[in-house]
């Protein structure tokens, strides 16, 4: 099996790139989701001076080019940078760091948008049901479950498809910090287009598999809603 | 509301804790591969994980340290490092890892202390690197040469004179695809324009600055039926894909591409793996390895990709 | 429950109730034209909104004793049954499935017990919201326009439920409605609001039959239902 891969993909290190992609995207998505959901809900709940500006900044960050964030992350993590002592350059940790910077605003923005539309009604309802703070919090998460799932899955999608930032921070080191996307980029740079597409298809199949899994766990309760 | 999040996070983190060990190095990846298979999208992982396991035990990682190198994409593309890496590991127990970027970026990484050793092919930049104090000493390792490739039966006749070729490109406004990415190859090209005193080579409407890697640039050249400057190694590896192109110019003294290896100065960055860097430099300059370098590619392409020329002491 | 000097600003609208008496165990009706502050007041009572000024003396009631139903009720993304027993779960009360079934069959919802609640028709949703409000034995129920778009049979059903409840164990009701027939039928007290103020409170006869305030007369003249007889 390995021979087959090696033959076709040459020395780009495909199997390891799959492993690296999985590890990195798992951690990026997890951390960014926890942060993003928390911040998104917090943002909806609290009013403070400068809230409009904060929301606007969040929106902007959602669309920020990942390669720019990646460069920023690299400069933060390099030895001369403020977090240089972490030695996260050329490591998966560093790549996760960069990706968290990219994905958290996305999850936060999506959760915030949805919360703005639905959280007040849920809170009012919780009140009339006599729920206390904790119960209200749990209710919010439960009732917004589908949208939260959607935000998380979107975050995951961004994570595995990202190439600029992970390239800059990770260094695309074969077997170590080369992801599927940077491997595709390497293949392309070497002129191996067909191999690149093939790997791209593998990547998309993986993304599809995760979507299917997410759907399976997310119990489909939606009947036809009566409007 | 944080409680629910934290509960989920911790449950999954507990399951995935093992996989983090894979992040910090290349040692012992069998367990993480398995855990991953169990928790992530189950289906397609198991196959990959099993193959991974087999591969890992094969390589038996007992690395005595890691040597981090910055080098160029064209060096990486030749496959020489992939060939040397396991040999180096076996002989010294040191795991050579490298990041392949542009020449400028590679040198900068050396100056920033992000890597332990630098292997590039841009003498001027290498010497400046040493002079700046961030590089210890420059050792020449090997050279290959650049060539001009272009369409068979194209307007340029085969020649050894690079300057005449460049002049013809300018005069006849021929299609010329440049790397355009400040790489060693690109610098070689601009150096020749400089030498010829042609400052406005970009005014040629058919001059294309690709901003791309070598393989990509060759592809573009073929598409456009033009000419480009490439290193022989990449051309040998790719020429089967481009039956319409051939070598149009080779052998000029200007076209030599000298590789140098430099250790990053531990006085500036005490935590660089200087010992491993020196081991590597000694190793790659040793007569045995030099011989291997000189034989690299012969079997596959019929001619060597490199000409070893380390100074023997 | 006594309300004193309650004030709330909502955009352009300003609510100011100088004094309102909501006696225990009676059915109170809040009437007035749209935008008079009925819904704002009910939100203040349930604690969804906090007042800018003034006080509500709950006389010992807590938020767990108070509940509200509305015209477009919020339903959980879950089955009818789960929605119904939710207030019990909040209070840590083990749901008695038999009792729950009784409530459901009373409304004709028993066969839809396992159905996704949000797929119910709006009338059914209102009924569900109503019994959900009663299942945990509240002390104060606010019925906010819930009956407005209901068919006559369902309206009848709700009124029966309210009256039954009052016979068995009287609790305090605040019903907000435009339907004066309904108000007259079940309310012990009527409170008339206009433009954020309570203009009058008293028995239905006092307020609706022999209104002293010109605004109330004006309001009544606009409604079709004559208030003499039925």
Detailed description of the structure:
The complex is a heterotrimer of chains A (227), B (313) and C (230). By secondary structure, chain A is mostly helical. Chain A has one domain: MetI-like (MetI-like fold). Helices cover 75% and strands 0% of the residues of chain A. With 313 residues, chain B is α/β, with parallel strands linked by helices. Chain B has 3 domains: 44 residues, no CATH class; 129 residues, Periplasmic binding protein-like II (D-Maltodextrin-Binding Protein, domain 2); 112 residues, D-Maltodextrin-Binding Protein, domain 2 (3-Layer(aba) Sandwich). Chain B is 48% helix and 20% strand. The N terminus of chain B is likely disordered. Chain C is α/β, with parallel strands linked by helices and 230 residues long. The longest helix of chain C is centred in the C-terminal third of the chain and has 17 residues. Chain C starts with a strand and ends in an 8-residue tail after the last helix. The model of chain C has no long low-confidence stretch (mean pLDDT 88). Classes of the chains: A mainly alpha (227), B alpha/beta (313), C alpha/beta (230). Chains in contact: A-B, A-C. Chains A and B meet through helix 2, helix 6, helix 9 and helix 10 of A and helix 1, helix 2, helix 3, strand 2 and helix 10 of B.
Please tag this protein with its features.
heterotrimer; A: 227 residues; mainly alpha; MetI-like fold; 10 helices; 75% helix; B: 313 residues; alpha/beta; D-Maltodextrin-Binding Protein, domain 2; 3 domains; ten-stranded mixed β-sheet; 14 helices; 10 strands; globular; disordered N terminus
How does the overall form of chain A come out from the CA principal axes?
globular
Taken in chain order, the helices and strands of chain A follow as HHHHHHHHHH
Task: Classify the helix fraction of chain C into a percent range.
Answer: 25-40%
Q: Give the helix tally of chain A.
A: 10
Average of pLDDT of chain C = 88
Biggest interface reads: A-B, 50 and 55 residues
Shape of chain C: globular
Helical segment count of chain C: 8
Provide the structure class of chain A: mainly alpha
Percentage of residues in strands of chain A: under 5%
**Could you give me the name of the CATH homologous superfamily of the domain at 2-73 and 139-222 in chain C?**
P-loop containing nucleotide triphosphate hydrolases
CATH fold-level assignment of chain A: MetI-like fold
- Rg from Cα of chain A: 20 Å
Largest sheet of chain A: none
